[in-house]
Design a protein that fits this description.
mainly beta, 5-stranded antiparallel β-sheet, globular
Length: about 70
């Protein structure tokens, strides 16, 4: 689950391919596809939830870990 800034939500569609890397290790890449784009923007953070389904068998992420998604 990713939290995407409000200004970027219009660019994201279900089925889009995503490459996710931890902020501290850009060599570790997890690929996946957008499964869900939330329609509610959090008033405080100005973000919406985006769910990505990917192969996490090669690289694991910790809950709450900051990542870069492309």
């Amino acid at each position: 689950e990713l939290h995407i800034f409000e200004r970027d939500i219009a660019k994201i569609r279900v089925g889009d391919e995503v490459a996710i890397s931890p902020m501290n290790d850009d060599q570790r890449v997890i690929t996946g596809k957008v499964d869900h784009v939330g329609d509610v923007v959090d008033a405080e953070s100005r973000t919406a939830e985006v769910r990505v389904i990917g192969d996490t068998t090669k690289a694991s992420l910790r809950p709450g870990e900051s990542v870069v998604a492309r």
